[in-house]
Amino acid sequence: METLSETQFAYLLLAPALILLGVIAVYPLVQTFSMSLFADQLTGSARLGEFVGLQNYIDLFTGARDFALPSAFLPTFTTQFPFVTDIYSSALMVTLIFTLFSVLFETLIGFGQALILDQDFRGRRWVRVAIIIPWAVPIVIQGMIFFLMFQPNIGFLIGTSDNPALLNQLGLIGTTPLRDTADALFLIIVADVWKTSAFMALLILAGMQSIDRSLYDVAKVAGASRWQQFKLITFPLILPTVLVAMLFRTIDAMRVYGIIETMAGCQTVPSLSCLVVTTFNAPLYGTSATVAFVTAGIIAVVVSVYIVNFASEGI
């Protein structure tokens, strides 16, 4: 080992982790891609299990299999504004909408919670515990809580056509929201934000507390306002942590399944993971593997965008 360079020694230390990663991540991904190249019951005239190359991908992106799937993969495109129809019937669009709004609001709320928890006040420890509680709730229990809250004749936040509740009167949801795709997706985003904003808060808070406090003392001596301290000290130094936290949440949100299944069901709110699970249970293994590999590809593109941002920020 004494003859190894620093780079070679670093790779030697990383070798066990890379081997483990290859076994639990790369190998299943390769197997998934391999399975997607073979026919299932929906692959035209090909025999079951016959090698068909990229035909499964072609059928998926052209919509040739939408008639047999629980939901379409892509939305319907038109030549007129807004150029896309049937957004909520597309598993891809539902997943992207969920990811966009859930990660956005979780980051904003988590950032606000972190700013509060970073202050020195009496009872701060108890407030931290209270914020963590939603994140500690299992997804199944979380889903059942929100399911019962918005179930007609049971939930206290939902009314009837004769006696609408406040949310109904404001036009935010209908009287049977968990049976309507748009309403159910809205409530699922709310449920996910309620649970996971605590995760964002904890990550961002950890980054805030790593900031050298002497920087704030110097800023106060220089006469900087609270807003200037936040703009010139807190935000630039916490930005790498925020981007990493958003990356983790984006990857997780793209794979959303449990909260959908427990609240409204995949028939009402389709997602990419719902499509994978449903086709796998059909069993349509070739189609399921195709959707799974495409989902992994989309996540890889999203991760690449984050990495480019990391590089531009010098992270």
From TrEMBL:
Describe its membrane topology: Multi-pass membrane protein
Please give the start and end residues of each transmembrane region.
9-30, 91-117, 129-150, 184-208, 229-248, 289-311
Instruction: State the species of origin.
Output: Haloferax elongans ATCC BAA-1513
What protein does this entry describe?
Sugar ABC transporter permease
**Chief location of this protein?**
membrane
Keyword hit for Transmembrane: yes
Q: Family assignment? A: Belongs to the binding-protein-dependent transport system permease family.
Q: Which SUPFAM superfamilies match?
A: MetI-like
